[in-house]
Design goal:
Blueprint (H helix, E strand, L loop, with lengths): L1 H11 L15 H14 L3 H12 L3 H14 L4 H15 L3 H6 L19 H8 L12 H7 L1 H11 L2
Length: 161
């Protein structure tokens, strides 16, 4: 339990910057593996093997994509996060891994790429790249200003600016 708390404290001690700074960015491949390693190092006994078994059953591409979206989302507005979610959703639906997960068979899905190490930053970036202008999520101005202002204020209250 102490190791798990230390791993959580390590990640909490290095919050994402308020403004995205490309020169300060880290690669997803390094941070995803290190996050998994830290969590596993902080757990002992059967729990560790259960967590590792669960992670190994998941799509490596989806794990990297989720981690990147969490990191980038911490510095974006709600409007930008929803656009990022839309881009990822529209593109991942056509990936091999969604088909493998939806196969419905009793056998474990076969992921492509097959491991975290095999997923490149370019793979994740391709899923998050801007869509053509006419396909990009466009939210009404009133929604951005009126409806989301209280939500963003609450997020700033709890998570800082």
């Amino acid at each position: 339990a102490k190791k798990a708390a230390a791993a959580a404290a390590k990640h909490a001690a290095h919050p994402a910057p308020v403004e995205a700074k490309p020169e300060a960015s880290v690669t997803v491949s390094d941070t995803t593996e290190s996050l998994v390693d830290d969590v596993l190092a902080g757990m002992g006994g059967t729990s560790q093997s259960d967590v590792l078994a669960a992670l190994k059953q998941r799509s490596p591409l989806s794990l990297k994509l989720t981690h990147r979206m969490l990191v980038e989302g911490s510095t974006k507005s709600l409007d930008e996060c929803l656009k990022m979610e839309m881009r990822a959703a529209l593109r991942t639906i056509d990936t091999h891994d969604v088909g493998a997960a939806m196969g419905g068979g009793a056998a474990a899905p076969s992921w492509l790429p097959g491991s975290l190490a095999d997923v490149g930053d370019v793979d994740v970036e391709a899923l998050l790249a801007p869509l053509p202008h006419q396909e990009e999520l466009r939210l009404p101005r009133w929604a951005r200003k009126k409806a989301w202002a209280p939500i963003e204020a609450e997020m700033h209250h709890w998570y800082g600016e």
